[in-house]
Every structure is written in structure tokens, then in C-alpha cells.
Design a protein that fits this description.
Structural class: alpha/beta
Oligomer: single chain
Shape: globular
Radius of gyration: 19 Å
Strand order of the largest sheet: 6-5-4-7-10-14-15
Distance between the termini: 37 Å
Number of strands: 15
CATH architecture of the largest domain: 3-Layer(aba) Sandwich
Helix content: 25-40%
CATH topology of the largest domain: Rossmann fold
Order of helices and strands: EEEHHHHHEHEHEHEEEHEHEEEEE
CATH superfamily of the largest domain: Translation initiation factor eif-2b, domain 2
CATH class of the largest domain: Alpha Beta
Length: 346
């Protein structure tokens, strides 16, 4: 991987009947791959966050249908058994709408054969990259106009770059676009407890792309914002309701509240596939609860007293009224000003 820009990294690749995943649980210390030859391995990889990030999960969902078809043919499954395995992929992470969306984009074409399903899955990956680059331009244009500043200090939460998408990135894609215009002074990357996607993954990408950054504890984010050290914050999304309510990595809501109090823009960036117009608001978005041990342990080392119980919601929901702008490849909606996100889906 030496000499390769992180913006060119593809965390999900189809390779001759195998889904190859860059193992994000091993980064940044080890760059290794997981080869998913069957649905059992793929679902385990999704649940363990070997692959994560809403757009990347959309690509995985589509390829997962093809993998189920191949495994079914190899093992002599009935059509019903194959469909059951496809549903296992679809439901592996309930909050991330893109995973189900990716499955739904291709599953109706199963009867047309593996070539058709794969063609459509490949197209989802291509479309995602283009959407990411386009939304990055929209987001950069909007924030430069909104702030009126030539150099920006930005805070981001979790990982939203090449590792979270087919390539390039959403929120981190906007940061990359601003960096390419010479408009980034510094990035504050929240560590993102409990699995440290910011410290492990976002920092890895920023370092490789030569973007000036600092890693900070999640608990420092509000203070950094309120001290006037940040010009805007930008995050990704795992599901966006019609009114702009947004589910994203736990800790996003606190960043939004601090930005509102400080009077600086708080932006959400995602492809239009993340917008779920079947939800009028975020009240019904299912919040994934992950293993308590992710909180009470760190890299396999117990950090809480024996018998401690952990509470580990993977996501929170930020109300649209606290979001200055939702950005997709179709443009910008200023939800805090009362705009809905319908226009961002075509």
C-alpha cells in the first residue's frame, strides 16, 4: 500500500467469487485482508466492523447477494435458503440503512442470474465514488461561502473517508476537497470511543494524505468548539430521516449541541442512499446496541472493575434543527432553517 493515496483505497473489492475486505479492526498497526468466501464469514465481518461506514456497507450488501447466490449454487441450496442468507446480510447492522439499501438494489435481479447481479453491484460502487466526489464539492462550496474564511479549522467525528465508502469519502471527502483548495488549517479528529475509529482510521487517512490534524478525546470536543478553536464540524450519517434527523456514531449529538451553542456550522455529509424518506423523523430509528465488553475492555484489556456492566449504543440521533446543512450529491438542505431533505433524493 506504500505510495498509494488513501483516497484511492477501496475497502471492498469483488475478486473472482470472493468479497475481499480491508480489515479495519487491525488498522493502523496492520494492513491485512479478510477474504469472504461464504455468508457466515461476511456477516461476522460486518458485525465485527471489519467493514463499516454506511456507503461501504451499501456496496457490501449488493456484493453479499452475489456471494449468497454463489454459495447457494455450490451447496445446493433452495431458492428459499438462498433468500434466508441474503436476509442475514441485510439485517446484520440495523441502524445503517445503506446495508439494506444495497441488498434491495440487486435482490430483485437474482432470477436474472449472477452476471446481472454483479453488474448492478459493481455499478453501486462506481456510483458511490462519483456521489462522494460530487457531494464533497457541494459541501466545500457551501462551507466556504457560509464562513467566508480562506483557511478553516474543522472538527470531525468517527471515520468517513475512503475506508467508510467505496473510495474517497463523505465528511472526510469534504475535508479532502477543502484541502485540495488550500483551505484547511487543521482537523480535530475525535478519537471515537469505544472502538477508536477516529484515532485509528481517520488519523491514518489524514496522515497519509498530508492533512494537518490532531487526535483528541471525545470528551474534549465540546470544549474545543466552545473555546473558539473550530470553524465548523462535519460528520457522516448512517440514516437520515425526512426532516433531517440524523443517526450517526455515538457522540455526534454532543458535537452538534456544542456547535449550536458556539454559533458555528454543523454539517452532515452522506450519499442520497442514506436518506430514508420512509422515516418522517428520527424517533423510530433503531439504535444498535453493541457488546458491553467494548466499553468495559480496551483492545482485550479489562479497564473497568469486575462485574461492571457496560451500556454501548453504537449511534445517536441528532435532530435536524441542530444541523446547519445536510449535503448529498444532489445539493444542500439547510435543515436547521426548516428545509426537509426530499430535494436531496432523486
Amino acid at each position: 500500500m506504500a505510495g498509494v493515496k488513501l483516497s484511492d483505497i477501496r475497502p471492498v473489492v469483488w475478486d473472482q467469487e470472493v468479497i475481499v475486505l480491508l480489515d479495519q479492526t487491525a488498522l493502523p498497526l496492520l494492513e491485512s485482508e479478510i477474504r469472504c468466501t461464504d455468508i457466515e464469514v461476511l456477516v461476522d465481518a460486518i458485525e465485527r466492523l471489519v467493514v463499516r461506514g454506511a456507503p461501504a456497507l451499501g456496496v457490501v450488501g449488493a456484493y453479499g447477494v452475489a456471494l449468497a447466490m454463489i454459495e447457494g449454487k455450490r451447496k445446493g441450496w433452495t431458492a428459499g435458503q438462498t433468500h434466508e442468507q441474503i436476509l442475514r446480510v441485510r439485517n446484520a447492522r440495523p441502524t445503517a440503512v445503506n446495508l439494506a439499501w444495497g441488498v434491495d438494489q440487486v435482490v430483485d435481479h437474482v432470477s436474472e442470474g449472477i452476471e446481472v447481479v454483479l453488474e448492478r453491484a459493481h455499478q453501486i460502487a462506481v456510483d458511490d465514488e462519483q456521489a462522494n466526489r460530487t457531494l464533497s464539492q457541494h459541501g466545500a462550496d457551501w462551507i466556504l461561502k457560509k464562513t467566508g474564511k480562506a483557511k478553516l479549522r474543522v472538527l470531525t467525528h468517527c471515520n468517513t473517508g475512503s475506508l467508510a465508502t467505496s473510495t474517497w469519502g463523505t465528511a472526510l471527502g469534504i475535508i479532502r476537497e477543502l484541502h485540495s483548495r488550500g483551505a484547511i488549517e487543521i482537523v480535530y479528529a475525535d478519537e471515537t470511543r469505544p472502538l477508536l475509529q477516529g484515532a485509528r482510521l481517520t488519523a491514518w487517512e489524514l496522515h497519509h494524505d498530508g492533512i494537518n490534524y490532531l487526535v483528541q478525546a471525545d470528551g474534549a470536543a465540546a470544549s474545543t468548539i466552545m473555546r473558539g478553536l473550530v470553524d465548523f464540524a462535519v460528520i457522516g450519517a448512517d440514516r437520515i430521516a425526512m426532516n433531517g434527523d440524523t443517526a450517526n456514531k455515538i457522540g455526534s449529538l454532543g458535537v452538534a449541541l456544542a456547535c449550536r451553542e458556539a454559533g458555528i456550522p454543523f454539517m452532515v455529509a452522506a450519499p442520497s442512499s442514506t436518506v430514508d424518506l420512509s422515516y418522517a423523523n428520527g424517533d423510530s430509528i433503531e439504535i444498535e446496541l453493541r457488546s458491553p465488553e467494548e466499553v468495559t475492555n480496551l483492545h482485550g484489556v479489562q479497564i473497568a472493575p469486575d462485574l461492571s456492566k457496560g451500556f454501548n449504543p453504537a449511534f445517536d440521533v441528532t435532530p435536524g434543527k441542530y444541523i446547519s446543512a445536510v449535503v448529498t450529491e444532489h445539493g444542500v438542505a439547510e435543515t436547521s432553517a426548516g428545509e426537509t431533505v426530499e430535494k436531496l433524493v432523486r
